[in-house]
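dumping this here before i forget
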Amino acid sequence: MMRMMRSAHVIPTAFLVAAAQMANGLGFAADAPQKVRFVHASRSNSMAPKLIAQSKGFFRAEGLETEMIQMNPRLAATALLSGEAAFADAFTSVFRGILQGFPIKVVFVHQKKGPYFLLARPEFKDIQQLKGKKLGVSTLRGSDHLVAEELLQSKGFNPSWIQVLGVGDAATRFQSLSSGVVDAIAVGTPHDLMLRQKGFSVLAGPPEVGVPGAGVFTPDRFLRENSLTVRKTLRALLRAQHYILENRQETIQALLQWLPQTPEVAAHSYDYELKGLSRD
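structure:
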């Protein structure tokens, strides 16, 4: 009889231990950060809000684990629609997809106007000398191409007078101009100052109108099914932008770790680009 009573007590105790372990396991799963993937167009200082949100733990504080992947801007909309990524920042390329009917929304704009400059090889001192020459752009009709046309027109230069070549992101355009593959490019910070220091000519910029420097896009389906995640992401990014605007030196140090650049170039990037970030 006593043996049976002991067995009767052992079974409930073992059950309670197992139940507690299961409950703990479920709790850990619930606390696990949600993974979200960003695709970005280029490795540049315009990525600062996302980098700061990541490095300072602002995403983590919202329960998010973020992955940043560089991708050709022409593929960004496809990555969103296929579920490969939750967010993208290739502003003009993705926005063009929206105009074509893609179910994507712009949910955040970091910067209302990117600080682009039109730079040319040192031998070109006047914009009219670019007739028949080569303009390097990221993609045809991309942000830098549209801004380049605006800058050319602001100087009385017809964009049809120059040959346009799609060469790649800002770093690739920088190399293409440096090596003589193209004769001119439209580029933002920090590459504009790096080229000036090498003796390249600044023929125009920044633009009067321009295009938004950076933003955040997400597919309609993700927004509908993960609205809380979107709100958390935007909250972390907005917190990062406030940090950037209020902490110049710390942000410059972060830029130096992100890209190979001098302190002078990083400071220039902050003053010309990041000080223009929106606060809301």
